[in-house]
Amino acid sequence: MKIALDAMGGDFAPREIVLGAVRAARKTKSELAIVLVGDEKKIREELKSEKGWENLPISIHHAGEVISMNEHPAEAIRQKKDASVVVATRLVKDGECDAVLSAGSTGAAVTAAQLILKRIKGVSRPAIATPMPTPMGVTLLLDSGANVDSKPEHLLQSALMGSIYAEHVLGKNNPRVGLLNIGEEETKGNEQAKETYQLLKQISTINFVGNAEGRDIPKGNFDVVVCDGFVGNVVLKFAEGMAVTFFELIREAIMNGGVFAKMGALLLRPTLRKLGKRLDVDEYGGAPLLGVNGCCIISHGSSNAKSIENAIKAAGDYVHRDVLAHIQNALVKGGDVAE
Amino acid sequence: MKIALDAMGGDFAPREIVLGAVRAARKTKSELAIVLVGDEKKIREELKSEKGWENLPISIHHAGEVISMNEHPAEAIRQKKDASVVVATRLVKDGECDAVLSAGSTGAAVTAAQLILKRIKGVSRPAIATPMPTPMGVTLLLDSGANVDSKPEHLLQSALMGSIYAEHVLGKNNPRVGLLNIGEEETKGNEQAKETYQLLKQISTINFVGNAEGRDIPKGNFDVVVCDGFVGNVVLKFAEGMAVTFFELIREAIMNGGVFAKMGALLLRPTLRKLGKRLDVDEYGGAPLLGVNGCCIISHGSSNAKSIENAIKAAGDYVHRDVLAHIQNALVKGGDVAE
Lengths: 339, 339
Known about the structure:
The structure is a homodimer of 339-residue chains.
Chain A: E1 2-6, H1 15-28, E2 33-38, H2 40-48, E3 58-62, H3 73-79, H4 84-93, E4 99-102, H5 106-117, E5 127-134, E6 137-142, H6 152-168, E7 176-180, H7 191-202, E8 207-212, H8 216-219, E9 224-226, H9 229-255, H10 258-279, E10 286-290, E11 295-299, H11 305-320, H12 323-338
Parallel strand pairs in A: 1-2, 1-4, 2-3, 4-11, 6-9, 7-8, 7-9
Antiparallel strand pairs in A: 5-6, 5-10, 10-11
Helix pairs in contact in A: 1-11, 3-5, 4-5, 6-7, 6-12
């Protein structure tokens, strides 16, 4: 198994990306190979400090351009044929790699996957499925930003794809699928949610439990929560901001809290660390773009080596568990019901 | 100033509602009077334990019916003319009270206000404006659930009303208004957001700073964040769920953390308490329904006495600072630009 890793994408690229690749390669050894895609000189520079990397299953595939966060995705992809994310995606298309992984511009990664890998037959719109940490494990939130103004059929497809991913990769048995809404009753919500509810109700291949409210996500009351990419993206970023703010406030409160508070914090540190690890998004690293013909994993822009390592693991699981084939099969059936 | 308080609305009604009223009355003394609206017998029962309440500016206005959380708001309001929230709202309409406050069904309170108080001229849709705690004070999120599938003009009106409330009640000078979106650039987002951006750009009476992303809300980067009621409601409930989960996890981690963790927690307790208080939604109690002809304050269903006390304070501020007149003036101007 070979993973094409966009070495130039992300706030801390190429440093943290390369580091994550090395760590993953050291652990998995011969099970998977990593192709670092990007500026060869810069990548080599980073690899220098990783002693013995030559013996790891890591190779470099040069790509001379980079798409930055601020560029318009579709335009950038058309103009920069040699951009790292484009080249990495093409490696999957050409059968040289099994998965592409990028922490760069999400829009660029999604657009590249759509244009190069194309959509799975029966899928009108791919969706980013983000695993969110909860006390009950993870809840898969999708779509978390690939598309906005989605139609009910698109959300139905997301539900099918999310359920498959939750079952085969996240190990959820008969995953509980919820529709993100503003009330429990099926008559609640906007037009999109009300119509989607009616579609989901009719699908027998997934375990649709009903509407999920905002609070059900952090509480882990569902395995899969389906929503429009606009709402999902807002929620995802809100969660990130709230977690960061919370830990900052605790730190600040301790600093201003006098000697007892500081002693207490010292004693509590291992406990809080463990908790932080449990809630750390980096532990869950990658979010698959479900619905394209190939494995495309998206990591958040601020990915560090640990996120990348975990995202590589997610890519491996996706390929290993044959998620693509499962989705292809299901969508043919699912499409029938929806039409 | 007189406040009509729906004594029967909320998970802990009438107990906590009555208690909140008594506390508020004890503090404010003669500045404001509270009319407890609901089942007189039950209210008297609760008041019994509050020694000397007869000397407080509290009175009872009997209402024989209650609208529960699960009833369809519009139907319930039509059928139950004697429901506490309906009677309380009518007291404002009739000029007997200056504000209505309910912790019962949000839908019922909003519908009652729309039907009885009517909308302000120039406002097509009222919006619930919820103050959310951040390290920088509060951020006003609106609409947090009065309406869904809003048009850009509605969001523009929300921006105008929210800005006025933030300035006059929350004490924000030239409040920074943001449009909730999935990216900073004005070309980002769904159709609703893109069109709203263009409208907001043209308004000179508010300080429109640009798009706000999900993470900007908990970080407190804006004073007012405008969005569709569907998105706002999801975000609000997500925040509630995340805060509850977080504190539960900390408690659980401490319980399982051995003797050092417990000692640390003991030493840190005053610091964490202070922090909890700073982030506690109950401290900010009430969310005004902006855009109706009268002051209508909505409290969350799980309101305790403290929330009610703070919501009464919010109602007092709303009336005292003449929010209604400010909105009426602004909307005449704002309406011109929008059309």
